[in-house]
Amino acid sequence: MTKLFNSSTMRLNHFLQTLLPALLLGCVDPDTPDLNATVNVVVVDGTLNDLAEPQTVYLNRSRADPKTGRFGSLPLSGLRVELVVDSTQVVVFRETFPGTYQLPDGFRGRVGHRYQLKFALEDGRRYESVPETLQAAPAIEGLSARFNPLGLPPLVYDGFTAAHDVSLTTTDPADRHNYYRWDWVLYEKQDWCRSCYQGVYAVNNILSHQYYLDDQNRINFVSGNQLFEDCFAPMERFNDFIEVLGGAQPKIRLGDFRYDYACRTRCWEIIRSSDLVLFDDLYTNGGPLRQTVAQIPFFTRNPALVEIRQAALSQEAYQFYKLVQDQTQNNGGLTDTPPVAPIGNIRNVARPRERVVGYFAAAGVSVKRHWLDRKDADGPSLGTRNNPQPPVTGQEELFVALNLRRLSPEPPPPYIQNRFPPAILIFGGPPRVPTAVCVPGFNRTPVKPEGWRD
């Protein structure tokens, strides 16, 4: 089994963005803007699987700034993106976010069928992947977890290494050569749903150019009646000088302030693996297979739910991911192999020699969930490791682990004696301090995960 840690990424696309400067330029001095500026490549990241979940492809362009030579990523938006099934059926993706394309709801891959990605840029250039046949993934038969105080590399969380090693058992099919990729998804109970930087959370809209003078001679913004459910930051919305009550709009305290708001309903944080875990059964083909496939960081002492995903890759997909892995593990020593751009299975139809980075894979995936009670954990969690005063409570522990700071809730009324008001005051609307909605998305859900124990 081979493994790669990368604490700052969530998708293969980000691995590639990190690698491209070295991979495409090789040993060229990266401080040479003339050469760097010539790099301009399409980056593709997507895997079609057979699970009942959104099927998504990410399309970006990695290019160097012509003046500085610094690399950046731009989403390829507004494209027509298609999936060709068995060389006959065409299914059209829809763009859900810039550069993010999703197949129709309910669509999923089927074992034994061939899938090919096609898309065209605005300038007419057309790209397509080499078709892949979706292979069935063997079922995950069992999962177990064991606390490991040295499970994580020290550089991932600034010296914090405690984790739970998760191992699985499966039966490796003996009738073919198999290639695996393992990922994990962690569900943690989340109590804090929004942080507002230099602003406050407003349930309703804030009326423009209307203010209220309270009994302490403090000027308040005025709440409307329409739902807003967002951070209100007047520095971004009121830039003109307004004469009101003999003065200007309410003065906003300068400085680096922020307020954190509790969740209004139940909410779960979704934390996804940021490492590549690959396996080739060349020397172990057939029979039972037991592998440690995940290291789940010891974020908090609270129980959590972990989902392990086992993907059955094609040989070509495995070789691509393995190359990405090898290049990111390259330590730059004298004996290292020079970087090679991880060119995948995407090509420009008219110009096959164009370098296109990334891969579109079709892979069967089996899933199994495990309740992580963390009763065997020892020592401080990531959320309590600095032993702050006052001590971190259970509801704050995950927040500290993910944000690397203590909570800063909005001060509640009444604002008398030594109780200072927040930097921004709002008159009317729901009582202060409001709670925030749990907005469903890639990293959060208000829907109770299947397998969660109350």
Descriptive key words:
27 strands; disordered N terminus; 454 residues; six-stranded mixed β-sheet; seven-stranded antiparallel β-sheet; mainly beta; 2 domains
Number of helices: 5
Radius of gyration: 26 Å
Largest sheet: 7 strands, antiparallel
Q: Based on DSSP secondary structure assignment, what is the total number of beta strands?
A: 27
Number of domains: 2
Q: Can you give the helix content as a percent range?
A: 10-25%
The CA-CA distance between the termini, in Å, is 35 Å
Helix/strand-derived class? mainly beta
Please mark out the parts with pLDDT under 50 across 5 or more consecutive residues, or reply none. Answer: 2-10, 25-37, 236-247, 331-335
Tertiary shape: globular
What fraction of the residues are assigned to beta strands by DSSP? Answer: 35-45%
Reconstruct the topology from this structure.
Layout: E1 2-5, H1 12-25, H2 33-36, E2 40-48, E3 56-64, E4 71-75, E5 80-85, E6 89-92, E7 94-97, E8 100-102, E9 114-120, E10 126-129, E11 132-133, E12 140-148, E13 163-172, E14 179-189, E15 192-197, E16 200-213, E17 219-232, H3 234-237, E18 258-262, E19 268-272, E20 275-280, E21 287-297, E22 304-313, H4 315-329, E23 346-348, E24 356-362, E25 364-372, H5 394-403, E26 426-427, E27 444-445
Parallel strand pairs: 2-24, 17-26
Antiparallel strand pairs: 1-20, 2-3, 3-4, 3-8, 5-6, 5-9, 7-8, 9-10, 9-11, 10-23, 12-13, 13-21, 14-19, 14-20, 14-22, 15-18, 16-17, 19-27, 22-25
